[in-house]
Design a protein that fits this description.
single chain, 99 residues, mainly beta, four-stranded mixed β-sheet, three-stranded antiparallel β-sheet, 0% helix, extended
């Protein structure tokens, strides 16, 4: 009597094409900027820049502390870090100083 069966298969699929966008300059557009707000980070309140994600363009750099907002997600760019939107519209976060 069988109490369990396991099957495994492989199906060839096409990889999706990820569109590459031209790079704009490092300065985020004015319409992406929102009023700053205080954030609590490592036992202290700090003023943080706030950006709306959709108007940001590939090549833009966000220097922390900053908050990037979108209706589906929000993320923090920590103090001492920089987030750069790459040509595939993916944020790359790098540490610029010890945070």
């Amino acid at each position: 009597m069988f109490t369990r069966a396991v099957a495994q298969g492989v199906l060839p699929t096409e990889k999706p094409h990820v569109r590459e966008h031209p790079l704009a300059g490092p300065e985020p557009p004015k319409d992406a900027q929102k009023p700053s707000r205080n954030i609590y980070w490592r036992d202290a309140w700090q003023d943080a820049a706030v950006y709306e994600m959709d108007p940001l363009q590939p090549g833009n750099r966000i220097v922390g502390p900053a908050v990037v907002e979108h209706p589906a997600t929000t993320f923090l760019v920590q103090p001492g870090c920089t987030a750069t939107l790459n040509a595939y519209r993916i944020f790359e976060v790098t540490e610029t100083t010890g945070s």
